[in-house]
Design brief:
This protein is an alpha/beta fold. It has six helices and four strands, in the order H-H-E-H-E-E-H-H-H-E. The protein has helices at residues 4-7, 10-24, 43-53, 82-87, 90-105, 109-127, and strands at 30-36, 64-70, 75-80, 143-144. Strands 3-2-1-4 form a four-stranded mixed β-sheet, sandwiched between helices. Helix 3 links the parallel strand 1 (30-36) and strand 2. The two termini are 16 Å apart. Bound molecules: calcium ion (CA) (2 copies). One calcium ion binds next to loops.
């Protein structure tokens, strides 16, 4: 896997941020992507830490979704807050994970992330439709650790 600086091109990053923006036009939910070089602990545990560090557990409706990528570990995790977890069944996260994984396997990292964002956006829109006066509670930019 490449260095984190080379993991995505600037254009690819822009495409991802745009995909998040578009997804959030249909939902009050918040989607974030966090990429870091390496994770020395269990990636799922680390993803939960990042979720907290990015204050993603502070959304009004508990409907934040994080896609976490550890480049060296060749690993990613997609997790949601209680609100969205209570609404969907585990199959949703599994099928979303499979979609991302199939792109990652071919080194299509940007497409994998965008597919994940779209899947999360779809299900968030279903359970947490966009409401008038909604605010962008969490920045759409990719965060790097
Ligand atoms: Ca919002
Ligand atoms: Ca946002």
């Amino acid at each position: 896997m490449p260095y984190i600086e080379d993991f995505l091109t600037a254009n690819q990053e822009e495409e991802i941020v745009e995909a998040i923006r578009v997804a959030e036009c249909d939902t009050s939910g918040e989607i974030r992507v966090h990429i870091e070089q390496r994770c020395d602990i269990d990636v799922y545990e680390r993803a939960q830490d990042v979720f907290h560090i990015l204050k993603m557990d502070n959304t009004k409706q508990k409907n934040g979704v994080l896609l976490y990528v550890a480049v060296d570990n060749k690993a990613f995790v997609i997790i949601g807050d209680h609100g969205i977890n209570n609404a969907v069944d585990a199959n949703f996260w599994n099928s979303t994970r499979d979609k991302i994984a199939s792109q990652f396997k071919s080194s299509n990292f940007k497409q994998g992330i965008i597919d994940g964002v779209k899947e999360a956006g779809k299900v968030l829109a279903e359970y947490f439709p966009w409401e008038h006066g909604d605010s962008d509670e969490l920045d759409n930019t990719i965060s790097k650790g």
